[in-house]
Amino acid sequence: MKVQISSLSPEKTRMLVLSEEQVRSFRHYGVCPTCCTAQDPVCLTRLGWFDWKSKLEVVQCQNCDSIYYANPPDSEQIDKYYQEHWNKAGGKNIESDAHVGTAINRKMQRLLDNFCLAKDSTRILDVGCGLGGMLAGLSESGYSNFYGLEQSHHRFAAAAKRYPGRIFDCGYRDLNDEYLFDVIYCNHVLEHIYKPSDYFEWLDDRLTHNGVAIVCVPNVQWEQLVNQILYIPHLHSFSAKSLKKAGERVGFTSVFWLDSDRKDDLCAIFFKNSDTYRCFEHINLNSTAFADLDDFPDISLSSQKDRFKNIWARRLGEEHSKTLINWPSANNIQLVDNDVQRWDSYTVWRSQWRAIFCLLLFRKRFAFRVWPQLNRGEGLINRLLSTPKRHVTDYNHLVFTTLGNTEDGIPEITYRKKAPILMK
Ligand SMILES: [Zn+2]
């Protein structure tokens, strides 16, 4: 399927577009960046103009099921994103950003409380601690031996102001080799790292003998497809299987925490020493807050391929349309198995109908106010008035127009003859 992206509201869409030359210069991973398996990954989507010889590829590992850019944008492009967008506030409004005591701040404390750790002596490290919110949660609940690590300078400054001497101003690899920790956690950081496998090796080095690592990432089962394909900072999408395999490679045993406030949160706990794991099992024998891999109905390799293909092939009135717009409303994670992602697919009214509509209403301001409501959904009026091949996500006001089939059936996406990358 050939798909062209355009933007309904360019002012609301931040996009970085890459030329063929740039894409050609990006290096391919030699092995899977998560599990280090050497076999060829399966291509799910390509980004770039259809005639290009080199395109940005979104692929899936056949061993661990992780999804990633086979040839991710180089660090120059990634840095550009972080400098221009991620750090856009540049340290302004930092005080108002640094809320303490919210649910998200208490997440790690709630998780760690299951482990019955000594609150005064257990050495804890938060990798990518941001403004220090989660450390504040730990502190409030009595943990006192905690540290943070933050690469962004203004976030570091804010966290260090709150916890002087406890925050390291560096990336994880630059941390002094002498430091060891009993618990190392990172909350929604791993998907931003070029090589997750390197991070696991580093964890193995930095954890004490009975050390525990906690890794929380967006769950691929709940992550928007648009995010997986186009959102540049998320270089990887993981399932429970991906994380388990990544941990196994360095000898870790893993379980998953099911009690996060966010349903789209995948939280894995890794034990460096299997004795610690056994002890932990005993503590939580009756707990429903933890599960092993068997409790996660991972999206299989084949269903991912179909999902990527079908999402673009969707037409109004076609049989499979229902399976693609489903956002599981129930909290039962099993439901995700058959219906995958939120894909609010609106129809776009033909421009002449829009003009007539505005004329009829006479009052332009009113027309614009009700316009978004009328544009939503797939009611009878929409079906009569819309162009069936165009679909709009509620995500950054993007329009996806399908143009035809590619030779091998793998979806290809372009934006003005460039490779599109979203910046949110
Ligand atoms: Zn892999």
Radius of gyration: 23 Å
CATH class of the domain at 94-295: Alpha Beta
First-last Cα distance: 25 Å
Average of pLDDT: 76
Number of strands: 19
Strand content: 15-25%
List the helices and strands and how they pair.
Blueprint: E1 2-7, E2 15-18, H1 20-25, E3 42-47, E4 56-60, E5 67-69, H2 75-86, H3 94-97, H4 107-112, E6 124-127, H5 133-140, E7 146-149, H6 153-162, E8 167-168, E9 181-187, H7 196-206, E10 207-218, H8 225-230, E11 236-237, H9 240-249, E12 253-257, E13 265-271, H10 274-283, E14 290-291, H11 301-313, H12 321-325, E15 346-349, H13 351-361, H14 364-375, H15 380-385, E16 386-392, E17 398-404, E18 412-414, E19 419-422
Parallel strand pairs: 1-18, 3-18, 6-7, 6-9, 7-8, 9-10
Antiparallel strand pairs: 1-17, 2-19, 3-4, 4-5, 5-11, 10-13, 12-13, 12-14, 15-16, 16-17
Helix pairs in contact: 13-14
The chain binds zinc ion (ZN).
Residues 32, 34-35, 37, 61, 63-64, 66 line the site of zinc ion (ZN).
Structure description:
It is a single chain. Helix content is 31%, strand content 22%. The protein is of the alpha/beta class. The protein has a domain at 94-295: 3-Layer(aba) Sandwich (Rossmann fold). Strands 11-5-4-3-18-1-17-16-15 form a nine-stranded mixed sheet. It has an eight-stranded mixed sheet with strand order 8-7-6-9-10-13-12-14, with helices on both faces. Strands 2-19 form a two-stranded antiparallel ribbon. α13 (351-361) crosses α14. The longest helix has 13 residues, at 301-313. The model is unreliable at 314-350, 375-380 and 386-396 (pLDDT under 50). Zinc ion is lined by residues 32, 34-35, 37, 61, 63-64, 66.
